[in-house]
Amino acid sequence: MIKLTPGRILATILIAVSVWVVHAFLEAILAACVIATASWPLYRRFAARLPRGLRKAIAPVLFTCGLTVFVLAPLVFACWALLTEANALLLGLAAVDRAGLAVPPWIGCPRLRSSDRGWLRARNQAPWPC
Fold first, then answer.
1. Are 37 and 54 in contact (CB under 8 A)?
2. CB within 8 A of 2, min separation 6: which ones?
3. Which of 18, 56, 85, 120 is close enough to 126 for a disulfide, judged by CB 3.0 to 4.6 Å?
């Protein structure tokens, strides 16, 4: 039988809290493990090309910066394209808000009596060109 001492209880609580905190970052940790495992052979070749004195100090920093740019550049491009499209959409909505929404010509004219057309035109409420 395991004896419950304050140290063991504290260790159990510490492990439980650690697992709870790490659980929120589990996807990011797994993604980092996949990237590190996949890029390890490339890193070894990269480090082998550097001078011997710089391998331990500069190689990890340079490779991490290069890999970060390689991963983040498409994300930055996608965000920039999304913001550009959102800006165009907002400008179009602002133009419609200012000028109103025109009835497309392919809809055609509704079949109204001439008295109804005159009534709508007199009040500037006829959206149709006919």
1. no
2. 8
3. 120
The answer to whether the Cα torsion of 103, 104, 110, 112 is positive or negative is positive
> What pLDDT, in 10s, does the model give residues 99-124?
877 766 666 666 666 666 666 666 66
Q: Which of 106, 96, 98 is nearest to 129 (CA)?
A: 106
Q: Which two tokens stand for residue 12?
A: 């159990």
pLDDT of the residue at 124 = 62
* One-letter amino acid of 43: Y
Angle between helices 26-49 and 59-99 (to 10 degrees): 130
Q: Which two tokens stand for residue 121?
A: 């035109």
CA distances to 37, 41, 56, 70, 91 from 47, in Å: 16, 10, 8, 18, 50
Whether the CB-CB separation of 88 and 64 falls below 8 Å is answered with no
Cα 111 → chain centroid? 49
